[in-house]
Write a structure and sequence with these properties.
196 residues, alpha+beta, Arc Repressor Mutant, subunit A, Alpha-Beta Plaits, 2 domains, four-stranded antiparallel β-sheet, two-stranded antiparallel sheet, 6 helices
Length: 196
Protein backbone atom coordinates (compact mmCIF):
# COMPACT_ATOMS: atom_id res chain seq x y z
CA UNK A 1 0.00 0.00 0.00
CA UNK A 2 1.38 3.45 -0.90
CA UNK A 3 0.56 6.87 0.41
CA UNK A 4 0.44 8.61 -2.97
CA UNK A 5 -1.15 12.01 -2.48
CA UNK A 6 -2.64 14.72 -4.58
CA UNK A 7 -2.98 18.44 -3.83
CA UNK A 8 -6.73 17.99 -3.24
CA UNK A 9 -6.23 15.54 -0.36
CA UNK A 10 -7.51 16.93 2.90
CA UNK A 11 -5.68 16.30 6.17
CA UNK A 12 -8.49 13.89 7.11
CA UNK A 13 -8.02 11.83 3.93
CA UNK A 14 -4.26 11.76 4.46
CA UNK A 15 -4.69 10.69 8.08
CA UNK A 16 -7.09 7.90 7.03
CA UNK A 17 -4.52 6.64 4.49
CA UNK A 18 -1.83 6.79 7.16
CA UNK A 19 -3.99 4.73 9.55
CA UNK A 20 -4.65 2.13 6.83
CA UNK A 21 -0.90 1.81 6.19
CA UNK A 22 -0.25 1.46 9.92
CA UNK A 23 -2.93 -1.27 10.13
CA UNK A 24 -1.32 -3.18 7.25
CA UNK A 25 2.08 -2.83 8.90
CA UNK A 26 0.68 -4.06 12.23
CA UNK A 27 -0.96 -7.06 10.54
CA UNK A 28 2.37 -8.00 8.94
CA UNK A 29 4.38 -7.50 12.12
CA UNK A 30 5.61 -10.60 13.90
CA UNK A 31 6.95 -10.96 17.39
CA UNK A 32 10.76 -11.30 17.33
CA UNK A 33 10.47 -13.10 20.68
CA UNK A 34 9.38 -16.30 18.89
CA UNK A 35 12.85 -16.51 17.31
CA UNK A 36 15.44 -18.27 19.43
CA UNK A 37 19.18 -17.57 19.58
CA UNK A 38 19.86 -20.12 16.81
CA UNK A 39 17.32 -18.48 14.47
CA UNK A 40 18.97 -15.12 15.08
CA UNK A 41 22.44 -16.60 14.55
CA UNK A 42 21.29 -18.03 11.21
CA UNK A 43 19.86 -14.66 10.17
CA UNK A 44 23.03 -12.80 11.15
CA UNK A 45 25.31 -15.24 9.30
CA UNK A 46 23.16 -15.27 6.16
CA UNK A 47 23.13 -11.47 6.09
CA UNK A 48 26.94 -11.54 6.23
CA UNK A 49 27.21 -14.22 3.53
CA UNK A 50 24.07 -15.52 1.83
CA UNK A 51 26.11 -18.16 -0.04
CA UNK A 52 27.32 -20.05 3.02
CA UNK A 53 27.13 -23.81 2.42
CA UNK A 54 24.73 -25.50 4.86
CA UNK A 55 27.48 -27.51 6.62
CA UNK A 56 29.48 -24.30 7.22
CA UNK A 57 26.39 -22.42 8.41
CA UNK A 58 25.57 -25.33 10.70
CA UNK A 59 29.09 -25.27 12.13
CA UNK A 60 28.86 -21.52 12.78
CA UNK A 61 25.52 -21.72 14.59
CA UNK A 62 25.88 -25.18 16.17
CA UNK A 63 23.28 -27.18 14.20
CA UNK A 64 23.23 -30.07 11.75
CA UNK A 65 22.33 -29.31 8.08
CA UNK A 66 18.83 -30.90 8.28
CA UNK A 67 17.93 -28.61 11.20
CA UNK A 68 19.41 -25.60 9.37
CA UNK A 69 17.34 -26.46 6.30
CA UNK A 70 14.15 -26.67 8.36
CA UNK A 71 14.86 -23.44 10.22
CA UNK A 72 15.62 -21.59 6.96
CA UNK A 73 12.41 -22.96 5.44
CA UNK A 74 10.42 -21.70 8.46
CA UNK A 75 12.14 -18.30 8.42
CA UNK A 76 11.27 -17.95 4.72
CA UNK A 77 7.69 -19.21 5.20
CA UNK A 78 7.09 -16.58 7.90
CA UNK A 79 8.49 -13.82 5.67
CA UNK A 80 11.59 -13.20 7.76
CA UNK A 81 13.92 -14.27 4.96
CA UNK A 82 12.64 -12.62 1.80
CA UNK A 83 15.42 -13.50 -0.62
CA UNK A 84 19.15 -13.71 -1.27
CA UNK A 85 21.23 -11.30 -3.32
CA UNK A 86 24.79 -10.30 -4.02
CA UNK A 87 26.21 -7.04 -2.74
CA UNK A 88 27.95 -5.31 -5.62
CA UNK A 89 30.37 -2.40 -5.91
CA UNK A 90 28.48 0.24 -7.90
CA UNK A 91 31.67 2.20 -8.67
CA UNK A 92 33.35 -0.84 -10.24
CA UNK A 93 30.19 -1.43 -12.28
CA UNK A 94 30.37 2.06 -13.77
CA UNK A 95 28.15 3.97 -11.31
CA UNK A 96 30.55 6.07 -9.19
CA UNK A 97 27.94 8.70 -8.24
CA UNK A 98 25.68 8.03 -5.25
CA UNK A 99 22.98 10.58 -4.46
CA UNK A 100 20.09 10.92 -2.07
CA UNK A 101 17.14 12.73 -3.65
CA UNK A 102 14.23 14.15 -1.72
CA UNK A 103 11.07 14.32 -3.83
CA UNK A 104 8.16 16.39 -2.55
CA UNK A 105 5.50 14.49 -4.53
CA UNK A 106 2.68 16.77 -5.63
CA UNK A 107 0.18 14.17 -6.78
CA UNK A 108 -0.60 12.02 -9.76
CA UNK A 109 0.43 12.97 -13.27
CA UNK A 110 -0.06 11.37 -16.69
CA UNK A 111 2.61 8.78 -15.81
CA UNK A 112 2.55 7.43 -12.28
CA UNK A 113 5.58 7.76 -10.05
CA UNK A 114 5.41 4.00 -9.47
CA UNK A 115 6.04 3.41 -13.19
CA UNK A 116 9.07 5.70 -13.22
CA UNK A 117 10.46 4.03 -10.09
CA UNK A 118 10.05 0.61 -11.73
CA UNK A 119 11.59 1.70 -15.05
CA UNK A 120 14.62 3.63 -13.72
CA UNK A 121 17.01 1.03 -12.34
CA UNK A 122 19.36 3.77 -11.17
CA UNK A 123 16.85 4.33 -8.37
CA UNK A 124 17.91 1.69 -5.87
CA UNK A 125 15.51 2.47 -3.07
CA UNK A 126 12.52 4.69 -2.39
CA UNK A 127 11.23 5.48 1.09
CA UNK A 128 8.02 7.38 1.92
CA UNK A 129 8.48 9.80 4.82
CA UNK A 130 4.88 10.06 6.02
CA UNK A 131 5.08 12.90 8.53
CA UNK A 132 6.90 15.16 6.07
CA UNK A 133 5.03 13.90 2.98
CA UNK A 134 8.00 13.25 0.71
CA UNK A 135 9.89 10.39 -0.92
CA UNK A 136 13.57 9.79 -0.20
CA UNK A 137 15.40 8.05 -3.04
CA UNK A 138 18.82 6.43 -3.21
CA UNK A 139 20.20 6.79 -6.74
CA UNK A 140 23.40 5.63 -8.46
CA UNK A 141 24.61 7.23 -11.69
CA UNK A 142 27.48 6.94 -14.14
CA UNK A 143 28.07 10.70 -14.25
CA UNK A 144 26.60 13.97 -13.07
CA UNK A 145 24.87 14.24 -16.46
CA UNK A 146 23.29 10.83 -15.93
CA UNK A 147 22.19 11.87 -12.41
CA UNK A 148 20.71 15.07 -13.83
CA UNK A 149 18.71 13.01 -16.35
CA UNK A 150 17.26 10.82 -13.58
CA UNK A 151 16.45 13.79 -11.33
CA UNK A 152 14.77 15.62 -14.24
CA UNK A 153 12.56 12.56 -14.82
CA UNK A 154 11.55 12.76 -11.15
CA UNK A 155 11.04 16.54 -11.19
CA UNK A 156 7.83 16.04 -13.20
CA UNK A 157 6.28 14.76 -9.97
CA UNK A 158 7.30 17.61 -7.66
CA UNK A 159 10.14 19.54 -6.12
CA UNK A 160 13.46 17.70 -5.80
CA UNK A 161 16.48 18.29 -3.60
CA UNK A 162 19.64 16.35 -4.49
CA UNK A 163 22.53 15.57 -2.15
CA UNK A 164 25.69 13.90 -3.42
CA UNK A 165 27.10 11.28 -1.08
CA UNK A 166 30.84 11.78 -0.51
CA UNK A 167 31.40 8.78 1.80
CA UNK A 168 29.51 5.87 3.37
CA UNK A 169 30.94 5.55 6.88
CA UNK A 170 28.45 2.80 7.80
CA UNK A 171 27.24 0.64 4.90
CA UNK A 172 24.10 -1.44 5.35
CA UNK A 173 24.94 -4.05 7.96
CA UNK A 174 21.78 -6.09 8.36
CA UNK A 175 19.57 -6.61 11.36
CA UNK A 176 20.87 -8.16 14.56
CA UNK A 177 18.98 -9.68 17.46
CA UNK A 178 17.14 -7.12 19.63
CA UNK A 179 17.81 -7.25 23.32
CA UNK A 180 15.19 -6.16 25.84
CA UNK A 181 16.13 -3.33 28.17
CA UNK A 182 14.84 -3.07 31.71
CA UNK A 183 11.20 -1.88 31.74
CA UNK A 184 10.66 1.86 31.92
CA UNK A 185 8.73 3.38 34.77
CA UNK A 186 5.09 2.78 33.92
CA UNK A 187 5.75 -0.79 32.79
CA UNK A 188 6.55 -0.17 29.09
CA UNK A 189 9.35 -2.28 27.67
CA UNK A 190 11.62 -0.90 24.98
CA UNK A 191 13.88 -2.70 22.53
CA UNK A 192 17.52 -1.85 21.98
CA UNK A 193 19.20 -3.28 18.93
CA UNK A 194 22.39 -5.21 19.61
CA UNK A 195 25.39 -3.96 17.71
CA UNK A 196 27.15 -6.25 15.27
Amino acid sequence: MTLATSPEDSPGVLFARYLRCMAVNAANRQDPADLDATDWAILVELQRDGRLPLPELGRLVGCEPPEITERMRRLAATGRITGYRAQVNATRLGFPILAIVRLQHEGAGPVSLDRVLAARHEIQECLWIAAERYHLLRIVASSTYHLDEVVNALARFGRTTTSLVSAVPLPYRGIDRPSATPPRPGGRETLMWASS
